[in-house]
Amino acid sequence: MIEDPVDPRFEGNTLVIETGNETEVYDSQFLVAALLIYVAKGDGSISDMETDKMLALVEQRFHLHGAESLALLTRAMTEMAENPDLENLLREISSTLRDDDKEEIAVMLLQVVAADGRKDVEELEKVNTAAEIIGISQEVMHRAFTRYFDEPPE
């Protein structure tokens, strides 16, 4: 948990937050993992199918091995539980993203919502909230929905 951060700063696309006793580093991989978990938990729990989809998406997007993807998702879940100011942290990290990146993230979020075969209202509301947090414009969100519905299901 981040307590009393000292001068958060960007080093390239990485947000570095130092406290009196530790340094936390957050990047776009963490951002994506945290948003996927946020949306998947929208209906109250994360199903096995959603977990599998998140792992696959993270592996594919960032070219990670299974264990690395699992570690990334686990770290994001832990941070979400421990950090009450995570939303502001995600906003800061997302400021480094281009619209193409945001569109890709939006498509991934939609894929997680659909992973368990249900499209719960709560999860779709979380997609909208996630889009607001990272500043996805309506135009980019529209493109993401178009891509999602045009792509054949896996």
Notable traits:
154 residues; mainly alpha; TerB-like; 3-stranded antiparallel sheet; 3 strands
Low-confidence stretches: none
Under the CATH scheme, the architecture is Orthogonal Bundle
CATH topology: TerB-like
Q: Quick one: overall form?
A: globular
| Biggest sheet statistics | 3 strands, antiparallel
Oligomeric state of shown chains: single chain
Enumerate the strands of the largest sheet in spatial order, edge to edge or round the barrel.
1-2-3
CATH level-four homologous superfamily name:
TerB-like
Overall mean pLDDT score? 86
CATH class: Mainly Alpha
Tell me the Rg in angstroms: 15 Å
Q: How many DSSP H or I helices?
A: 7
Overall description:
This protein is mainly alpha-helical. The protein has one domain: TerB-like, CATH 1.10.3680.10. It is 63% helix and 10% strand. It contains seven helices and three strands. It has helices at residues 28-40, 48-62, 66-82, 86-94, 99-114, 121-134, 138-150, and strands at 6-11, 14-18, 23-26. A three-stranded antiparallel beta sheet has the order 1-2-3. The longest helix has 17 residues, at 66-82. The N and C termini lie far apart (37 Å).
In short:
This protein is mainly alpha-helical and 154 residues long. It has helices at residues 28-40, 48-62, 66-82, 86-94, 99-114, 121-134, 138-150; strands at residues 6-11, 14-18, 23-26.
Question: Would you spell out the secondary-structure blueprint of this structure?
Answer:
Layout (H helix, E strand, L loop, with lengths): L5 E6 L2 E5 L4 E4 L1 H13 L7 H15 L3 H17 L3 H9 L4 H16 L6 H14 L3 H13 L4
Antiparallel strand pairs: 1-2, 2-3
Helix pairs in contact: 1-2, 1-3, 1-5, 1-6, 2-3, 2-5, 5-6, 5-7
